[in-house]
Every structure is written in C-alpha cells, then in structure tokens.
Design brief:
The chain is mainly α and 279 residues long. It has helices at residues 7-23, 31-37, 44-58, 60-63, 68-93, 104-126, 131-135, 137-149, 164-182, 184-187, 191-204, 212-225, 241-259, 261-266, 269-276. The protein has 15 helices and no strands. The radius of gyration is 19 Å and the shape is globular.
C-alpha cells in the first residue's frame, strides 16, 4: 500500500478500512502502530498512504455514540498517533514560506497531506478534547490561522470541484466550529483571530460553484458561535457573496451581541466597520 500511488492507493486504504471494520482492533492490534511508524518517514507518498488509512479508520469516532469500547479504542489510537501526527503537522507548516518556490505537483501533494492530517486530528478530537491536544492547542491553532491566510496560485480547480486548498480551509473551519461549540474555554484565547480569519476568507471567496461548500463551512462556524439557532443560514446552492455578507452582518454584528455579550467583545473594530456596510 505504501509503495502505490494515485487512485489505487486510495482504494487500498479504503480496503484496509473495510477489512478492519469487523476485526479492528481485536485482530489488528498492530495496524495503527504500523501506520504511525510511517508518519516518521520523509517519503510523502508513504505519509499520504498512512494518513488515508488513518482517516478511514478514525472516521467512526465522529459518528458512533460514546461507549466504553469506543473510548478504549480511541484512547489506544490517541496514545499511538498523537505525537507523530503533531510532528508531521509542524513539519508541513514549515513549507508555508516555501510554497511559492515549490512545483505545482509538490504543492498539491503537500496540501493533500495537510488535509489528511486535519481530518485525522478532527476525528481524534470529536468525542472529547484529548489532554495532549489541549496542552498543544497553541501550535495547532496558530498553524490553522496561518493556513486560513494562505494562498496557492499554482493550484487550480478542475471542473468546478474544490481544490485541496479549498478542502483544507473547509476542514479548518469545521475544526474551529467543533472547538467553538464543544471546547469554548480552551479556544477562547484564539477566538478574535479566528473570527478575523473566517471573515477574510469570506471576503476573498469568489462566487464559483465550488465555493458553495466553503460558504457552508464558514456559516457553520459563525452560527453556533453566536448562539443563533434562529438566524437564516446561507443556501450552499446559491453562493452569492453579497447575500452571505448580509447574513454575517445580521448574525455576528446585530444578533450575536444580543445573544452573547462575549461575541461583541471579540469583534475587532475593522471587522465591525466591514460588517456595518452590509447591515
């Protein structure tokens, strides 16, 4: 699996997931440790293969109900994966200043690894905030804030589909949403910068069809943070940036402070000015 590239690699990773679905972890006790070992190598292909398999295996932590068996499995996976995953993430962040000098192919593979790292991180944090990730929340969140500001001109969309950069930023918005909903105290020191980053993403996002998913991810972050279950959500099938700015103006600036005074305190003056233009 680690020596194969492209679509076949994804299919084999999915096959591992299907085989392990019935027998994991009882009959596959060495699977996650073997995958974690591949996170320590410099071969990007091996990193992608290992992270693809982890993403498939760990998705269950997002949708299965809490149980002793599930939490035992989650704990085992966390203890094995948390440190090598964090090291890979930190190493990938080091390429941000170098991205303009990288080939288009290298940039795509680099973004794919960051996407997969974020998916695995999201799954491992979904049930509860692990102590290790709480202790290391600053490097993770600082990195995600850098990613939100990042552009990659060499990456282009094919047939209106989201690029790896789009997918990465959508994944980051989903992580911000999870933390804002579930781990509010831990995320609060970063909240003002997160709001600014999400707003800048809204401003920069154009009206291509592929950006409908981006608007939805951005809206999912804004809505729960402002405690606005009654606020209208943007229609992902009609990604009009003007309408979405109007939505954010109502949700964040007008109704948000009314529902939660902490929201008003987090809105910087510059963002407040922009939002007022659409109120």
């Amino acid at each position: 699996m680690f020596l194969i590239r492209g679509n076949l690699q994804s299919q084999l990773s999915h096959a591992v997931h299907l085989m392990a679905k019935r027998d994991f972890p009882e009959r596959w006790p060495s699977l996650v440790p073997a995958l974690a070992e591949q996170l320590k190598v410099d071969d990007l292909g091996r990193l992608v293969a290992s992270l693809l398999a982890m993403d498939q295996l760990f998705k269950k932590f997002r949708y299965e109900s809490k149980s002793t068996a599930l939490w035992t499995e989650l704990k085992s996976c966390l203890l094995t994966v948390r440190e090598p995953l964090t090291r890979v993430y930190a190493k990938m962040l080091e390429f941000i200043p170098q991205r303009s000098t990288m080939s288009a192919e290298s940039v795509v593979q680099w973004l794919e690894i960051l996407c997969l790292v974020s998916k695995v991180f999201h799954s491992l944090c979904f049930q509860d905030l692990p102590e290790y990730f709480e202790d290391n929340i600053k490097p993770w969140m600082d990195g995600y804030l850098e990613i939100m500001k990042m552009d990659c001109p060499s990456v282009s969309s094919s047939g209106g589909e989201p690029t790896y950069l789009d997918e990465l930023k959508m994944g980051v918005c989903e992580i911000f949403t999870l933390y804002a909903q579930r781990f509010e105290e831990e995320i609060s020191p970063f909240m003002q910068n997160i709001i600014q980053a999400v707003w800048q993403l809204v401003v920069q996002t154009n009206s291509e069809t592929r950006c409908a998913y981006m608007y939805n991810a951005e809206g999912e972050f804004t809505n729960p943070y402002c405690r606005l279950s009654y606020a209208p959500k943007p229609d992902p099938l009609v990604p009009e940036i003007t309408n979405f700015k109007n939505y954010l103006a109502r949700a964040v600036l007008q109704r948000g402070p009314a529902a939660n005074s902490a929201v008003e305190a987090c809105i910087p003056a510059e963002l407040r000015t922009h939002l007022m233009a659409y109120a």
